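Hello again, I could really use a second opinion on something today. For a while now I've been wondering how a particular protein folds. Please have a think about how the structure follows from the sequence. Here's the protein in full, and shout if anything looks odd to you:

***
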Amino acid sequence: MTEKHHIIDTTLREGEQTPGLLFSLAEKKRILDGLVKIGVTEAELGVSSKFHPCPESLIDYCRTTHPHLTLSLWSRCRKEDIIHASGLAPDILSLSIPVSDLHLQDRLHKNRLWALHTMAASIDLARQMGMAVSVGFEDATRSDPNFLVQMAEAAQHHGAVRIRLADTVGIASPTQFTTLIDTLKKAHIDCQLAVHTHNDFGMATANAIAALEAGASSVDAVVLGLGERTGCARLEEIVGYLSLARGVQNLRAEFLKPLARYVAQITGRTIAGNRPVIGEDIFTCETGLHLQGLQNKPETYEPFNPENVQAERKLLFGAKSGRQAILQRMTQLDTTFSGQLNDGIIQSIRDTATRLKRPLNDTELIRLLSA
């Protein structure tokens, strides 16, 4: 998986759907600046609606400051929203239509034929107005696969350049996403395939990666995984995995932490110390066998170098540390150290750390050794 992958960041649309959250224009610009540094190639700037407008000034900013960034807007399959979008001239208009009977019948009181006709007419209208069209299938993972294929065939026939499958309530598994992508490919759906994954069961990132491995060309991501309920696939995890574990060259993991910290600051979020890729403590270790491995060859217990994500390795010594790890650290701290650690010294180090309820610093280690 070393080829380029297309990430559609939807922090400014899906992320802003987080209850109580609204970004200012200045904040949106700074978020976009960070996304471009990371290597994101498309940003969904917001919703096409006169009631929730995407500022023209934001589009102008992107056109002048980040001319290579693809700009998209999300839109319902409604004539007035499509016409509104045409005045903003996005690179791609992302039309959304539900495809599960649950949403069609129980939410909208419509049927499958209505969905087919509405989608087709909306694609035609958007294209007549000069816009490239992506079609998002809402609740795709709970739809009838045969109807999903029928909708995809119709979307492709009417000129959609991309079909985006939404796991609207986050119930799919990686295997299900693989099957879904395979089903569309076997049906000769040749336009781009993308996925929009929610994190209700903690599988948003895994589902996105599984879709890419199955042949999808694009995945949606959100900084910090913001969004409805438990949010969406986290940009940090997707970029981190693709660039650091799979060698995707167009993504820059070293810029993830500054953007994540900024978004956390303006949204009042806290980034947990053990948060994948961007947590402050993910390179901190105290356990004996792990310490020994990290001291000798960091790759034994680290999936990537700390420097790749602007982090530092922290080796702690205390109640969980083994003899060899402590011995190696003592040798580093004191060149006159004889290289012998009896059971009494080891036990003293562990007892002291247990009493203090924390690992020991270097000064304390030396003091115990001297004693």
The CA atoms of residues 167 and 342 lie 58 Å apart. The chain has a mean pLDDT of 91.
